[in-house]
Amino acid sequence: MKIAVVGATGLVGQKILEVLTERNFPVDELYPVASERSKGKKIEFRGKQVTVIAMKEAIELKPHIAIFSAGGDTSLEWAPEFEKAGIFVIDNSSAWRMHPGKRLIVPEINASELSVDDKIIANPNCSTIQLVVALAPLHKKYKIKRLIISTYQSISGTGVKAVKQLENERAGIDGEMAYPHPIDKNCLPHCDVFEENAYTKEEMKLINETRKILCDDSIRITATAVRVPVVGGHSESVNIEFEKDFDLDELKEILAQSEGIILQDDPEKNIYPMPRFAHERDEVFVGRIRRDFSNPNSLNMWIVADNLRKGAATNAIQIAEYLTQSGIVK
User: Fold this and answer.
1) What Rg, from alpha-carbon coordinates, does the chain have?
2) Residue 306 contacts by C-beta under 8 Å, 6 or more apart in sequence?
3) Residue 139 φ then ψ, to 5°
4) Annotated catalytic sites, by residue?
5) Of 6, 35, 117, 213, most Cβ neighbours within 10 A?
6) Which tens digits make up the pLDDT trace of 317-330?
7) Residue 37's pLDDT is what?
């Protein structure tokens, strides 16, 4: 099994290599791929030094799967070139997510949609992944009518530059800014760029990707995405209105029994999801589950996950695992 990791020197790329090792994914040959300026660098994988190569060389080596984490422009340019060579691409950028001919996959929900014809597969946005893992089993049982989402997103979702900004601010050092304002001791209601409708791109990803993954354009969704001074782990406050009423104990049991979810919901003992405990974990943590008394058939809950793992690297590798285990990739 030959695997290429495109963007191997970046924050998510490094996490992909780490998770490949942790999950014992069958990699016989690894091809770390990066820009021309990074070509020739050495990275470590499973105790060995591996040389970084450029795009064209990677295509010529014909990996079975290429996991992309190198930005949307790179994916738009190069993913079709890998596809032409018969290589399966799992793309972490936003480039292909809303393309009508491309699958948007969270394995716990819709991996079974994949076939040998799906050469470019989109990995959803990090905040969307953890959201839909928690929503999908509830939508199946009670049918969701409306969602109000507020996110509290880690700076690692922006990248190394944002982490460095926070470190500099805490150390009293003037340095390069990833954000238009300080992030330490602050919250920025500004994730990604603002669009013409006054929502940010991140907020629109939550809206559009959730509908696509749940295969239901009738769900009414609104979102506010906020960047907070947390280094790892996204949190989400979600208000859900269902078509059907629910029994709260039954609903909690559905979540507890669902793949990829850990229920942490004992407020009397101060047990609820927090990013510091989701750090370096692959599960989605759900808690603070309570009926919304202001609206019929409605619920509030709190969802937390590691944005670099389940929100990016782990989800991509779970897709790769499905491709190999199902025989789609041989």
Assistant:
1) 20
2) 232, 233, 275, 278, 279, 280, 281, 282
3) -65, -40
4) 126, 234
5) 6
6) 999 999 999 999 98
7) 86
